[in-house]
């Protein structure tokens, strides 16, 4: 787990530690700097792990609040960015487990005539995909998102979720299988994928 | 056949759609744990990746201001160093208090209460015989014998009592039959701690009871056994031992013994009412405090066949030194010795008060009063 354990460059590491010390000393400017320095990097991750931008903003706030509470336990074993990333993923996962699937009216399957390809490119179809993703259990969904969307390796996924490598693999695989079944059963996406497979092209 | 590692396959996958090599495809097909990913789902991945994810400077500023406005979280109260220290200290003291008696057993035993503590199998049946072991606060051991129908039986021959424990060698004594009561009488020696009492009958049948001796009994005295109708029911409530005894004349007595305090005065506990239950009939008994026990009298006669099962339980909460116990926790299941229990006469004096205006008021005052025949 090199990305978790490797030490950052000396200057950056020192800066991180100093920043942490200042935050612990209740330095307002340090807290501001912590947020300004790391929030832009964390936000895209949280945005991809959440459904809406507002959700991502909430998660970002929550992540930094939790990080601030956990700063006394930060010992510099990993880069501050990695450490914050881990906290953010944990916060997102917790939120994912807590949140009940919400079905928007826009996501109710439409039976009208349509052009599958154009629909797939439309905003509505994206939401349909997201809706399908939401049907997957939180633990599988976050493993899938971390692996496929965030591009983490399976060992990294396992470390982030504090599970074994085998469990991480199984969760990702299960997510794939569920997605395959759900998309095949979806009247819009199923047709689109069938057509794409037939044509051998990309969607 | 080329068989790349899972990591290699991941690298191939993450390199992008359309660039997956044949080897990678083969591996994905063969390795079920490698999370083989159909390329059609890359559409979903790309869509999610394509979400507007940049944080504008304006939004960043807003969120930063919100973050700074949020009060810094305080660690949970139990995680605060000072609280942790206090909790750890308290836990250490508690542990010390619990462990210390193990290293000074001699001193501790002096503060323990009377008799034999909870012992398993107070009533046991074997080879057509039923044996009940009852121990008293002063060290007496009574062994009641019944046949399978519950009829009291007399033991013929000599019954040996073997007392053993982990801390002293086995001691053997003989149980003496008591003439008027169908039981045997013995005595616990000055011992303490876990004990095992083995009764060996002339036929060779053995009954084994185990329990904890709570005191160092050095003497014992037994009330005239003929009076006892339902002997010593015992209930244990925390470190208090509650005993009932129902005498043949209908008198009900409840005593309490407490670790470290011995026999409690009646002012220290309260048993205002108990109920004798036999064959689905309830016989309530109101109790009042005497010096070191609570006493009451059965209001109606109770016909009991010898060996009949009787349950004695509290109707109202029982209070011992300010601690209230649910009535359901105090149930004594006992076996009668006598065929019937007599009752005490009820004296009902009538008092008439005359007022100047000539109006008469009268009331009846019921009073139960015990008298020996």
Description:
The complex is a heterodimer of chains A (203) and B (373). With 203 residues, chain A is mainly α. Chain A contains 11 helices and no strands. In chain A, α4 (53-70) packs across α5 and α8 (138-149) crosses α10. Chain A is elongated, with a radius of gyration of 20 Å. The relative contact order of chain A is 0.10. In chain B, the strands form 6 sheets. In chain B, strands 9, 10, 11, 12, 14, 15, 16, 18 and 21 form a 9-stranded antiparallel β-sheet that branches. In chain B, strands 1-2-3-6-5-4-7-8 form an 8-stranded antiparallel β-sheet, with no helix packed on it. Chain B has a 3-stranded antiparallel β-sheet with strand order 13-19-20, with no helix packed on it. With 373 residues, chain B is an alpha+beta fold. The termini of chain B are far apart. In chain B, α1 packs across α2 (22-30). In chain B, a hairpin with a 3-residue loop joins β10 (240-247) and β11 (251-258). Helix content of chain B is 18%, strand content 37%. The A-B interface holds A 26, 28, 31-32, 35-36, 39-40, 43-44, 47-48, 53, 57, 60-61, 64-66, 68-69, 72, 120, 126, 129-130, 132-133, 145, 147-149, 151, 153-154, 166, 169-170, 172-173, 176, 179-180, 183, 193, 196-197, 202-203 and B 6-7, 10, 14, 17-18, 32-45, 47-49, 51-55, 59-60, 63-64, 66-68, 70, 72-75.
**Can you summarize the main beta sheet of chain A?**
none
% residues in beta strands of chain A: under 5%
Largest sheet of chain B: 9 strands, antiparallel
Per DSSP, the total helix count of chain B is: 6
What is the end-to-end distance of chain A?
Answer: 34 Å
Structural class by secondary-structure content of chain A = mainly alpha
Mean pLDDT of chain A: 74
The ordered string of helix (H) and strand (E) elements of chain A is HHHHHHHHHHH
What's the mean pLDDT score of chain B? 65
């Amino acid at each position: 787990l090199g990305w978790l354990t490797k030490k950052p460059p000396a200057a950056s590491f020192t800066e991180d530690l100093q920043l942490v010390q200042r935050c612990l000393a209740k330095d307002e400017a340090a807290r501001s700097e912590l947020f300004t320095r790391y929030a832009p990097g964390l936000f895209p991750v949280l945005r991809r792990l959440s459904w809406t931008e507002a959700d991502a903003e909430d998660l970002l706030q929550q992540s930094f609040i939790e990080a601030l509470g956990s700063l006394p336990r930060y010992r510099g074993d990993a880069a501050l960015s990695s450490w914050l990333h881990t906290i953010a993923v944990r916060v997102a996962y917790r939120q994912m487990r807590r949140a009940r699937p919400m079905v928007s009216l826009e996501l109710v399957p439409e039976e009208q005539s349509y052009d599958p390809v154009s629909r797939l490119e439309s905003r509505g179809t994206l939401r349909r995909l997201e809706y399908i993703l939401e049907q997957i259990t939180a633990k599988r969904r976050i493993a899938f998102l971390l692996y496929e969307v965030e591009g983490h390796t399976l060992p990294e996924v396992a470390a982030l979720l504090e599970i074994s490598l085998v469990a991480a693999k199984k969760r990702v695989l299960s997510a794939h299988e569920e997605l395959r079944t759900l998309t095949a059963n979806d009247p819009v996406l199923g047709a689109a994928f069938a057509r794409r497979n037939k044509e051998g092209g990309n969607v | 056949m080329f068989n790349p590692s899972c990591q290699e396959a991941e690298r191939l996958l993450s390199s992008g759609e359309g660039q997956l090599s044949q080897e990678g495809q083969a591996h994905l097909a063969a390795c079920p744990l490698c999370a083989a990913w159909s390329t059609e789902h890359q559409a979903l991945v790309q869509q999610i990746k394509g979400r507007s994810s940049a944080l504008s400077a304006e939004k960043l500023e807003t969120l930063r201001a919100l973050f700074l406005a949020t009060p810094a979280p305080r660690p949970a109260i139990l995680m605060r160093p000072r609280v942790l220290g206090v909790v750890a200290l308290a836990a250490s003291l508690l542990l010390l208090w619990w462990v210390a008696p193990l290293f000074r057993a001699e001193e501790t035993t002096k503060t323990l209460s009377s008799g034999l503590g909870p012992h398993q199998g107070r009533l046991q049946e074997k080879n057509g015989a039923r044996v009940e072991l009852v121990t008293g606060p002063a060290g007496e051991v009574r062994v009641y014998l019944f046949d399978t129908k519950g009829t009291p039986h007399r033991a013929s021959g000599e019954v040996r009592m073997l007392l053993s424990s982990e801390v002293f060698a086995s001691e053997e004594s003989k149980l003496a039959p008591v003439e008027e009561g169908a039981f045997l009488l013995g005595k616990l020696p000055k011992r303490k701690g876990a004990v095992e009492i083995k009764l060996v009958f002339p036929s060779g049948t053995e009954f084994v009871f185990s329990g904890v001796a709570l005191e160092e009994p050095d003497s014992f005295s037994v009330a005239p056994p003929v009076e006892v109708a339902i002997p010593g029911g015992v209930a244990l409530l925390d470190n208090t031992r509650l005993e009932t005894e129902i005498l043949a004349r209908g008198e009900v007595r409840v005593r309490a013994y407490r670790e470290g305090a011995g026999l409690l005065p009646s002012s220290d506990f309260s048993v205002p009412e108990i109920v004798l239950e036999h064959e689905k009939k309830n016989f309530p008994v109101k109790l009042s405090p005497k010096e070191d026990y609570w006493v009451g009298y059965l209001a109606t006669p109770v016909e009991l066949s010898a060996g009949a099962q009787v349950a004695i339980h509290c109707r109202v909460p029982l209070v011992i030194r300010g601690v209230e116990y649910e009535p359901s926790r105090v149930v004594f299941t006992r076996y009668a010795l006598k065929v019937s229990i007599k009752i005490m006469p009820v004296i009902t004096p009538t008092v008439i008060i005359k007022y100047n205006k000539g109006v008469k008021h009268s009331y009846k005052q019921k009073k139960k009063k015990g008298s020996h025949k």
